[in-house]
Predict the structure of Leukocyte surface antigen CD53.
Amino acid sequence: MALPKKIKCFKYLVYSYVFLLALTGAAQIFLGTSLLWGHSVYYGIVQNKLWAPAAILLCLGPVTFILCWMGCQATNQRKRCLLGMFAALLVACICVQFIICGWSLAMRENLPTSVEIFIDDSFVEFLDKFSRTKVDNLHLWNRMQSQLQCCGVDGPLDYRRLSLPWSCCSRPEHAYESACDTHYKRGCLAVVSEQIKSRLLITAFGAAIIAILQSLGIFCAVHLTILFGKNDNTHPMNMNRKKKQQQFLPLTIQDKRHDLPSPINLSPSAPGQRVLKTALPPAMHK
Protein backbone atom coordinates (compact mmCIF):
# COMPACT_ATOMS: atom_id res chain seq x y z
CA MET A 1 0.00 0.00 0.00
CA ALA A 2 1.33 3.46 -0.88
CA LEU A 3 2.34 5.75 1.93
CA PRO A 4 -0.43 8.37 1.40
CA LYS A 5 -3.07 5.61 1.40
CA LYS A 6 -1.67 4.20 4.64
CA ILE A 7 -1.80 7.63 6.25
CA LYS A 8 -5.38 8.13 5.13
CA CYS A 9 -6.40 4.72 6.47
CA PHE A 10 -4.77 5.27 9.88
CA LYS A 11 -6.22 8.79 10.12
CA TYR A 12 -9.73 7.32 9.95
CA LEU A 13 -8.74 4.71 12.53
CA VAL A 14 -7.50 7.45 14.87
CA TYR A 15 -10.74 9.40 14.37
CA SER A 16 -12.71 6.28 15.33
CA TYR A 17 -10.44 5.79 18.32
CA VAL A 18 -11.00 9.40 19.43
CA PHE A 19 -14.76 8.81 19.31
CA LEU A 20 -14.29 5.74 21.52
CA LEU A 21 -12.21 7.87 23.90
CA ALA A 22 -15.04 10.40 24.13
CA LEU A 23 -17.43 7.62 25.14
CA THR A 24 -15.05 6.38 27.82
CA GLY A 25 -14.65 9.95 29.12
CA ALA A 26 -18.43 10.25 29.48
CA ALA A 27 -18.45 6.87 31.26
CA GLN A 28 -15.77 8.10 33.68
CA ILE A 29 -17.79 11.19 34.57
CA PHE A 30 -21.04 9.25 34.97
CA LEU A 31 -19.50 6.46 37.03
CA GLY A 32 -17.50 8.78 39.28
CA THR A 33 -20.49 11.08 39.89
CA SER A 34 -22.87 8.22 40.74
CA LEU A 35 -20.35 6.62 43.14
CA LEU A 36 -19.70 9.91 44.92
CA TRP A 37 -23.42 10.60 45.19
CA GLY A 38 -23.99 7.23 46.87
CA HIS A 39 -21.05 7.89 49.16
CA SER A 40 -22.60 11.15 50.37
CA VAL A 41 -25.10 9.20 52.54
CA TYR A 42 -22.40 8.20 55.02
CA TYR A 43 -19.75 10.79 54.13
CA GLY A 44 -19.84 12.39 57.59
CA ILE A 45 -19.01 9.05 59.24
CA VAL A 46 -16.27 7.55 57.08
CA GLN A 47 -15.09 11.07 56.16
CA ASN A 48 -12.81 11.22 53.12
CA LYS A 49 -11.13 7.87 53.49
CA LEU A 50 -12.93 5.84 50.85
CA TRP A 51 -14.15 8.23 48.15
CA ALA A 52 -10.73 9.09 46.66
CA PRO A 53 -10.72 6.40 43.87
CA ALA A 54 -14.14 7.51 42.62
CA ALA A 55 -13.08 11.18 42.76
CA ILE A 56 -9.93 10.51 40.72
CA LEU A 57 -11.97 8.55 38.19
CA LEU A 58 -14.34 11.51 37.89
CA CYS A 59 -11.44 13.92 37.32
CA LEU A 60 -10.07 11.73 34.53
CA GLY A 61 -13.24 12.33 32.51
CA PRO A 62 -12.46 15.97 31.55
CA VAL A 63 -8.82 14.97 30.98
CA THR A 64 -9.99 12.36 28.48
CA PHE A 65 -12.04 14.97 26.58
CA ILE A 66 -8.95 17.22 26.39
CA LEU A 67 -7.00 14.28 24.97
CA CYS A 68 -9.73 13.76 22.38
CA TRP A 69 -9.34 17.36 21.22
CA MET A 70 -5.56 16.96 21.15
CA GLY A 71 -5.80 13.80 19.04
CA CYS A 72 -8.13 15.43 16.52
CA GLN A 73 -5.93 18.51 16.17
CA ALA A 74 -2.77 16.46 15.76
CA THR A 75 -4.36 14.23 13.12
CA ASN A 76 -5.88 17.10 11.15
CA GLN A 77 -2.75 19.24 11.11
CA ARG A 78 -0.33 16.30 10.83
CA LYS A 79 1.69 17.36 13.86
CA ARG A 80 3.92 14.54 14.94
CA CYS A 81 4.95 16.09 18.26
CA LEU A 82 1.35 16.74 19.30
CA LEU A 83 0.30 13.24 18.26
CA GLY A 84 3.19 11.72 20.20
CA MET A 85 2.23 13.79 23.25
CA PHE A 86 -1.36 12.58 22.84
CA ALA A 87 -0.23 8.94 22.91
CA ALA A 88 2.11 9.49 25.89
CA LEU A 89 -0.53 11.26 28.02
CA LEU A 90 -3.04 8.57 27.14
CA VAL A 91 -0.67 5.86 28.35
CA ALA A 92 -0.25 7.80 31.61
CA CYS A 93 -4.05 8.01 32.09
CA ILE A 94 -4.39 4.28 31.45
CA CYS A 95 -1.71 3.53 34.06
CA VAL A 96 -3.51 5.76 36.58
CA GLN A 97 -6.75 3.83 36.03
CA PHE A 98 -5.02 0.49 36.62
CA ILE A 99 -3.59 1.96 39.83
CA ILE A 100 -7.14 2.99 40.83
CA CYS A 101 -8.26 -0.58 40.19
CA GLY A 102 -5.61 -2.07 42.48
CA TRP A 103 -6.08 0.63 45.10
CA SER A 104 -9.85 0.04 45.28
CA LEU A 105 -9.41 -3.72 45.66
CA ALA A 106 -6.83 -3.21 48.42
CA MET A 107 -9.15 -0.83 50.30
CA ARG A 108 -11.99 -3.34 49.90
CA GLU A 109 -9.94 -6.05 51.62
CA ASN A 110 -9.45 -3.85 54.70
CA LEU A 111 -13.19 -3.50 55.32
CA PRO A 112 -14.97 -3.39 57.74
CA THR A 113 -12.07 -2.70 60.13
CA SER A 114 -11.21 0.63 58.46
CA VAL A 115 -14.83 1.79 58.72
CA GLU A 116 -15.56 0.43 62.19
CA ILE A 117 -13.39 3.00 63.99
CA PHE A 118 -15.10 5.97 62.36
CA ILE A 119 -18.60 4.54 62.87
CA ASP A 120 -17.96 3.79 66.57
CA ASP A 121 -16.65 7.29 67.25
CA SER A 122 -19.55 8.92 65.41
CA PHE A 123 -22.17 6.75 67.13
CA VAL A 124 -20.78 7.50 70.61
CA GLU A 125 -21.14 11.20 69.90
CA PHE A 126 -24.68 10.71 68.58
CA LEU A 127 -25.65 8.56 71.56
CA ASP A 128 -24.37 11.16 73.98
CA LYS A 129 -26.51 13.87 72.37
CA PHE A 130 -29.51 11.54 72.13
CA SER A 131 -29.36 10.66 75.85
CA ARG A 132 -29.08 14.27 77.07
CA THR A 133 -31.12 16.34 74.65
CA LYS A 134 -33.47 15.90 71.76
CA VAL A 135 -31.42 15.24 68.69
CA ASP A 136 -32.16 16.98 65.44
CA ASN A 137 -34.43 14.82 63.30
CA LEU A 138 -32.16 15.48 60.32
CA HIS A 139 -29.04 14.39 62.16
CA LEU A 140 -26.63 12.27 60.13
CA TRP A 141 -27.43 9.10 62.06
CA ASN A 142 -31.17 9.62 61.76
CA ARG A 143 -30.87 10.16 58.02
CA MET A 144 -28.51 7.21 57.58
CA GLN A 145 -30.59 4.78 59.66
CA SER A 146 -33.73 5.79 57.79
CA GLN A 147 -32.20 5.58 54.31
CA LEU A 148 -30.10 2.44 54.84
CA GLN A 149 -32.77 0.75 57.00
CA CYS A 150 -30.42 -0.08 59.85
CA CYS A 151 -30.28 0.62 63.60
CA GLY A 152 -27.21 1.34 65.71
CA VAL A 153 -23.73 0.08 64.95
CA ASP A 154 -24.29 -3.64 65.46
CA GLY A 155 -28.05 -3.60 66.04
CA PRO A 156 -30.86 -2.10 68.18
CA LEU A 157 -29.16 -3.30 71.39
CA ASP A 158 -26.59 -0.52 71.01
CA TYR A 159 -29.16 1.92 72.43
CA ARG A 160 -29.28 -0.10 75.69
CA ARG A 161 -31.84 1.46 78.02
CA LEU A 162 -32.63 4.38 75.76
CA SER A 163 -35.69 4.41 73.58
CA LEU A 164 -35.06 3.80 69.92
CA PRO A 165 -35.05 6.89 67.69
CA TRP A 166 -37.71 7.23 65.02
CA SER A 167 -35.15 6.44 62.32
CA CYS A 168 -34.85 2.86 63.63
CA CYS A 169 -38.58 2.21 63.16
CA SER A 170 -39.42 0.34 60.02
CA ARG A 171 -43.00 1.68 60.11
CA PRO A 172 -43.23 4.72 62.41
CA GLU A 173 -46.75 5.66 63.43
CA HIS A 174 -45.95 9.35 63.15
CA ALA A 175 -43.08 11.08 61.44
CA TYR A 176 -40.10 11.85 63.69
CA GLU A 177 -41.65 9.98 66.66
CA SER A 178 -40.00 7.10 68.47
CA ALA A 179 -43.13 5.06 69.10
CA CYS A 180 -43.14 2.09 66.74
CA ASP A 181 -44.01 -1.59 66.74
CA THR A 182 -41.29 -2.86 64.43
CA HIS A 183 -37.71 -1.72 63.98
CA TYR A 184 -34.73 -2.59 61.84
CA LYS A 185 -32.67 -5.54 63.02
CA ARG A 186 -29.43 -5.01 61.14
CA GLY A 187 -26.64 -2.79 62.40
CA CYS A 188 -25.40 0.07 60.25
CA LEU A 189 -21.80 -1.18 60.27
CA ALA A 190 -22.71 -4.24 58.20
CA VAL A 191 -24.90 -2.24 55.80
CA VAL A 192 -22.33 0.53 55.28
CA SER A 193 -19.51 -1.99 54.83
CA GLU A 194 -21.47 -3.91 52.21
CA GLN A 195 -22.32 -0.76 50.28
CA ILE A 196 -18.75 0.52 50.38
CA LYS A 197 -17.45 -2.88 49.26
CA SER A 198 -19.84 -2.95 46.32
CA ARG A 199 -18.93 0.62 45.31
CA LEU A 200 -15.21 -0.07 45.54
CA LEU A 201 -15.69 -3.19 43.43
CA ILE A 202 -17.63 -1.18 40.83
CA THR A 203 -14.85 1.43 40.86
CA ALA A 204 -12.16 -1.21 40.35
CA PHE A 205 -13.89 -3.04 37.50
CA GLY A 206 -15.08 0.19 35.90
CA ALA A 207 -11.58 1.68 35.89
CA ALA A 208 -10.08 -1.55 34.51
CA ILE A 209 -12.65 -1.90 31.70
CA ILE A 210 -12.29 1.76 30.69
CA ALA A 211 -8.49 1.44 30.71
CA ILE A 212 -8.65 -1.65 28.47
CA LEU A 213 -10.97 0.12 26.02
CA GLN A 214 -8.71 3.18 25.93
CA SER A 215 -5.65 1.04 25.21
CA LEU A 216 -7.16 -0.46 22.05
CA GLY A 217 -6.18 2.40 19.72
CA ILE A 218 -2.77 3.46 21.04
CA PHE A 219 -1.10 1.40 18.30
CA CYS A 220 -2.96 3.42 15.64
CA ALA A 221 -1.81 6.74 17.10
CA VAL A 222 1.81 5.62 17.43
CA HIS A 223 1.88 4.12 13.94
CA LEU A 224 0.34 7.27 12.45
CA THR A 225 3.10 9.31 14.11
CA ILE A 226 5.70 7.09 12.41
CA LEU A 227 3.95 7.41 9.05
CA PHE A 228 3.91 11.20 9.37
CA GLY A 229 7.68 11.10 9.91
CA LYS A 230 8.26 8.92 6.85
CA ASN A 231 6.03 11.14 4.74
CA ASP A 232 7.97 14.24 5.79
CA ASN A 233 11.24 12.62 4.77
CA THR A 234 9.99 11.50 1.33
CA HIS A 235 7.99 14.61 0.43
CA PRO A 236 9.31 16.35 -2.79
CA MET A 237 9.39 19.79 -1.20
CA ASN A 238 11.44 18.49 1.70
CA MET A 239 13.82 16.72 -0.70
CA ASN A 240 14.37 19.93 -2.69
CA ARG A 241 14.91 21.84 0.52
CA LYS A 242 17.59 19.38 1.60
CA LYS A 243 19.32 19.65 -1.77
CA LYS A 244 19.37 23.44 -1.55
CA GLN A 245 20.79 23.27 1.95
CA GLN A 246 23.57 20.97 0.74
CA GLN A 247 24.43 23.39 -2.09
CA PHE A 248 24.99 26.23 0.36
CA LEU A 249 27.18 24.24 2.74
CA PRO A 250 30.63 25.85 3.34
CA LEU A 251 33.39 24.26 1.26
CA THR A 252 36.79 23.24 2.59
CA ILE A 253 40.03 24.52 1.15
CA GLN A 254 40.62 21.29 -0.75
CA ASP A 255 37.14 21.38 -2.19
CA LYS A 256 37.77 24.93 -3.34
CA ARG A 257 40.98 23.84 -5.08
CA HIS A 258 39.19 21.08 -6.86
CA ASP A 259 36.49 23.48 -7.94
CA LEU A 260 38.97 25.90 -9.60
CA PRO A 261 39.00 25.73 -13.46
CA SER A 262 41.98 24.04 -15.04
CA PRO A 263 44.39 26.29 -17.03
CA ILE A 264 43.78 26.46 -20.79
CA ASN A 265 46.69 25.76 -23.11
CA LEU A 266 46.52 28.44 -25.77
CA SER A 267 48.21 27.35 -28.94
CA PRO A 268 49.96 30.12 -30.96
CA SER A 269 48.75 28.57 -34.18
CA ALA A 270 45.14 28.75 -33.09
CA PRO A 271 43.37 31.37 -35.13
CA GLY A 272 41.99 34.33 -33.29
CA GLN A 273 44.06 33.70 -30.22
CA ARG A 274 47.26 35.27 -28.98
CA VAL A 275 50.05 33.92 -26.91
CA LEU A 276 50.35 35.35 -23.44
CA LYS A 277 53.88 36.49 -22.78
CA THR A 278 55.11 36.11 -19.29
CA ALA A 279 58.24 37.52 -17.79
CA LEU A 280 61.00 34.94 -17.40
CA PRO A 281 62.79 34.58 -14.09
CA PRO A 282 66.22 36.31 -13.79
CA ALA A 283 68.12 33.07 -14.37
CA MET A 284 66.57 32.60 -17.78
CA HIS A 285 67.92 35.96 -19.22
CA LYS A 286 71.51 34.74 -19.17
In short: The chain has two domains: 3-110+193-234, 113-191. The chain has a mean pLDDT of 76. The chain has ten helices and no strands.
